[in-house]
Design a protein that fits this description.
This protein has 14 helices and 27 strands. The strands form 5 sheets. Strands 1, 11, 12, 13, 14, 15 and 16 form a 7-stranded mixed sheet that branches. Strands 2, 3, 4, 5 and 6 form a 5-stranded antiparallel sheet that branches. The longest helix has 24 residues. It starts with a helix and ends with a helix.
Length: 561
């Protein structure tokens, strides 16, 4: 009777401890999950420990001679061996080619793909600056600040064609969770990364499924119990086009062995308010979703591609033709998708880039642009050198197309983390650095520097010169940059001709009905008049004629003297 009670108690203890471990760690029930292998090992150790404890209550001699313990030890060692072998056989050491082929790289032309910048759609802040703005906004909400804090997530997304960062609030403590859990989390922070406008978006119904909830409403546990076999990658917080908050939950796909070659195979969307979930194949994810592949996963996949060209051991020893990404990345909004930007440099760590990559966070599409130039860290140092007396620090740059030139765009922050100035650094000639208090001032200064250094020249006027003789049907006067202009229309033509009074003073002699002959170059809206000849004045009124007349007059005066 006593032995039976002891056995039942030990079995119950094993079940309870295993259940607690599973509830806390929530591993996926999937052979590819390292968590489930650790859970199996934990349970085996518990069983063997319980059996040993039971035998000790009877006889130490039985413990030493137990076949069960011997078999259990063999099973334990077998599980460890399979786990270790699976790890090795799944690694790049024996699968270098497969790892390199996980990512398909398309080589593209910078000037064709990257359009001239529109600063209304460019994130001018980094995550740290966004956190400062979010904390300030939260501090002004006296009705919430004592109960909630801003989560550190700050996911960058495209929302209605604008780059924004969004982050939910979280309970300030376990006590605050207990007192507010019925209503849920009432709002999230939304920051426009271009305008710096910060908004606390209040919800009509609170979010019940978040990272700061406990027990079954914790988002990770909620997902595990709905999808027990799914191995989830990093979750992100996003809002749809109507501002409804969702958790974007990518599901890992293992392409090499037991634990190797991780990409994304499916995506689960979870409504943060109701907990309702929808499961999608990765190619069927709704367009508004921006972050399926995390930036870290994309960078890891590119580094496999760049370093394993000649096998694993070459990537460690000889390192021939080995490339990897630079230390850092940023985000660009292109065609309603968020792309991860990072530079590509030699693995030996020199101070120049061989190009850069853009990687789509929704589709994994990757584009490589071969542009040699300074690394981002060099550009950051150049920008900081221009304001070294102010001790500003540079953020990780964005690569933009400024007047057809690949250019690093950098925000400069003070010790408090606030953006004070902006810098533009030419990628290929990083000694060309422009600084401005505003983006437009910085761009103007940068453009002037490019003209001054011969990088950019005035576009050649390739328009052909045409001639037309006809009567004036309409005439009007205007002022441009302080100079008077006459705009005329001629019989039989729909064109508008721009006649500068400074260059052709005789235009004031003409009226509707007078016949004129004009030489002009066609423009988009108006045609520029190069010469004017009319019956009203009976003389040619071109720049050249007037200059010649002035020279003749000056010559006659000299002869008279």
């Amino acid at each position: 009777m006593k032995k039976g009670k002891i056995k039942a108690l030990l079995v119950l203890l094993v079940i309870v401890l295993a259940g607690i471990y599973y509830y806390v760690t929530i591993p996926a029930i999937n052979i590819h999950s390292t968590g489930i292998w650790i859970f199996i090992l934990f349970v085996l150790v518990l069983i063997l420990a319980a059996y040993t404890a039971k035998k000790k209550f009877t006889s130490i001699r039985e413990v030493k001679s137990s076949k069960f313990l011997k078999i259990g030890g063999i099973v334990l060692m077998a599980v460890l061996l399979v786990f270790a072998a699976g790890s090795i056989l799944s690694s790049p050491i024996v699968n270098a080619k497969q790892y390199r082929n996980l990512l398909t790289i398309e080589e593209r032309d910078f000037s064709e793909d990257i359009q001239p910048v529109n600063f209304s759609q460019i994130p001018l802040l980094d995550k740290d600056s966004a956190e400062l703005l979010g904390d300030r906004k939260m501090g002004s909400m006296v009705d919430m600040v004592s109960q909630f804090e801003v989560d550190e997530l700050y996911s960058q997304i495209n929302y209605q064609d604008q780059p924004v960062r969004v982050s939910p609030l979280k309970y300030a403590s376990v006590i605050k969770w207990f007192t507010n859990m019925r209503e849920g989390i009432p709002a999230y922070i939304k920051i426009d990364m271009a305008t710096q406008n910060t908004e606390l978006v209040k919800l009509s119904e609170g979010m019940k499924y978040t990272t700061s909830d406990h027990f079954n409403r914790n988002i990770y546990r909620h997902l595990r119990f709905n999808y027990p076999t799914y191995i989830f990658n990093d979750l992100s917080f996003e809002i749809d086009e109507d501002g409804v908050p969702y958790w974007i939950c990518p599901v890992k796909k293992y392409n090499i062995g037991l634990f190797g070659g991780t990409t994304i195979g499916r995506v689960v969307l979870c409504n943060a308010i109701t907990g309702e979930t929808k499961d999608y194949a990765v190619e069927d994810v709704p367009q508004w979703v921006d972050r399926v592949y995390s930036a870290d996963l994309l960078v890891e996949l590119y580094n496999y591609h760049g370093t394993l060209k000649h096998g694993f051991f070459n990537s460690v020893l000889g390192q021939k033709d080995c490339l990897n990404t630079t230390d850092g990345y940023n985000y660009l909004a292109i065609d309603d998708d968020v792309w991860v930007y990072t530079g590509v440099t030699s693995i030996t760590g020199d101070q120049s880039n061989v190009g850069f990559v853009l990687m789509n966070q929704r589709t994994m599409e990757t584009k490589f642009y071969e542009i040699e130039g300074a690394t981002e860290s060099s550009a950051m140092s150049s920008a900081e050198g221009q304001v070294q007396n102010l001790h500003y620090t540079a953020t990780f740059p964005l690569l933009l197309n400024i007047s057809g030139e690949p250019t690093y765009f950098i925000a400069l922050k003070d010790d408090a983390g606030l953006v004070k100035k902006y810098a533009m650094v030419n990628v290929q000639k990083y000694q060309i650095v422009a600084i401005g208090d505003t983006v437009s001032e910085c761009e103007e200064s940068y453009t002037n520097l490019m003209y001054k250094n011969g990088i950019k020249t005035e576009a050649e006027d390739t328009r052909s010169v045409e001639t037309l003789t006809a009567k004036i049907t309409k005439i009007a006067q205007g002022v441009i940059d302080g100079d008077s202009h006459y705009y005329i229309m001629l019989e039989g033509s729909d064109e508008i001709f721009d006649v500068s009074v400074v260059d052709f003073i005789d235009i004031i002699r003409f009226n509707v009905g007078d016949e004129v002959t004009v030489e002009y170059k066609k423009g988009e809206q108006v045609d520029t008049v190069l010469s004017l000849n009319g019956k009203a004045s009976e003389q040619i009124s071109t720049k050249a004629a007037k200059e010649e007349q002035a020279e003749d007059t000056a010559g006659d005066s000299a002869q008279t003297e």
